[in-house]
Specification:
transport; about 75% helix; single chain; 2 domains; dipeptide transmembrane transporter activity; MetI-like fold; about 0% strand; Peptide/nickel transport system permease protein; mainly alpha
Length: about 350
């Protein structure tokens, strides 16, 4: 009788298989996070001093015209009713219409977000491919010259203001030396030549066989990707060094060396395998932060990405565009974190239980 009562008290959820419970927990977390994100974003958008009605009707509109648009936008309703309406429209894929471009916000995001995604992806790859070996190398040579060099480079890359570094890079490598192309994503005479299939200019140009446009896009991408990549590299190298130092001081490393395992085997096959689990989370967070934090880089280099789109919309009191862009970026941030958790479980079998 007691066992029956105990099983009944646990409920049907606890009787589900482990993988099913994990998926349900993940979905529930995703839904709650998304609702919280939209609620905070929507509330901030409504309490800001910018008047979205004036952005539509202009300063010289009559009071009647102002009141009409104010009512049509639903601003006369309580904020919870406005939020409920926003969620319903959001579930239908409707992010509103941009005052600045007069197009649906979802179409603007489809146009601008791939540029940010392309930039952040290449910057993250640069940070991983260079930062991880640098961090490992510094940890293996702790206290030596190379370790100090890596630490100083990491400190510089992590602390120097992005806008200052971007302007200096433009002045030297574009203005004085002419090694790379300047601001923008393409030269003006290449705009509109390649049909945007994926939104990634490198992929679209390669698919169309337009290699001169591909080269031009690479030339434009080098500087902004390097600036963002320097930030990613500094953070990843610093964390990799810290993780590796912790692992190299463990007893199992000493045991492996006593057994005659070669130093590269000790470093990469033993220590780095345990570091990899932590690095997945660090790389995921870095990628997400570049997606949401590339506003200054996009502004300095006139990069037509989602960061510049949100900033320009904010200055023009285009709150539908600001809310839509913020929700999309926040959703990507949450999605990347959840993907990192999945990869964490794939790499570390202990996390699956």
């Amino acid at each position: 009788m007691a066992n029956t009562t105990s099983r009944a008290a646990t409920g049907p959820f606890l009787s589900l298989p482990g993988p099913v419970k994990s998926i349900l927990n993940m979905l529930l977390t995703l839904v709650l996070t998304f609702v919280g994100l939209t609620a905070v974003t929507f509330t901030i958008g409504r309490v800001m001093p910018a008047d979205p009605v004036l952005a539509i009707v202009g300063d010289r509109a009559s009071q009647e015209a102002y009141d009409k648009v104010y009512t049509e936008m639903g601003l006369d309703r309580p904020i919870y009713a406005q939020y409920g309406r926003y969620l319903v429209e959001l579930a239908q894929g409707d992010l509103g219409t941009s005052v600045m471009t007069s197009r649906p916000v979802i179409e603007d995001i489809k146009r601008f977000f791939p540029a940010t995604l392309e930039l952040a992806t290449i910057a993250t790859l640069m940070g991983v491919l260079i930062g991880v070996p640098m961090g490992v190398w510094a940890a293996v040579n702790q206290g030596r010259l190379i370790d100090h060099v890596v630490r100083v480079l990491g400190l510089i890359g992590y602390s120097v203001p992005v806008f200052w570094l971007g302007m200096v890079a433009l002045l030297i490598f574009y203005g004085n030396l002419g090694w790379v192309a300047g601001p923008g994503r393409l030269d003006v005479y290449f705009d509109g030549v390649v049909e945007p299939v994926t939104g990634f200019i490198l992929i679209d140009a390669a698919m169309a066989g337009e290699w001169d446009i591909f080269d031009n896009a690479v030339s434009h991408l080098i500087l902004p990707a390097s600036i963002l990549g320097a930030f990613a590299l500094a953070y990843i190298a610093r964390m990799t060094r810290s993780f590796m130092l912790d692992q190299l001081n463990q007893e199992y490393i000493l045991t492996a060396r006593v057994k005659g395992v070669s130093e590269p085997g000790v470093v990469w096959r033993h220590a780095f395998r345990n570091v990899l689990v932590q690095l997945i989370t660090i790389i995921g967070l870095t990628y997400a932060s570049l997606l949401e934090g590339s506003v200054l880089t996009e502004t300095v280099f006139s990069w037509p990405g989602i960061g510049q789109y949100i900033t320009t919309s904010l200055f023009n009191a285009d709150m539908s565009a600001v809310l839509g862009g913020t929700v999309v970026v926040g959703t990507c941030f949450v999605g990347i974190n959840m993907l990192s958790d999945l990869l964490y479980k794939l790499v570390d079998p202990r996390a699956r239980t």
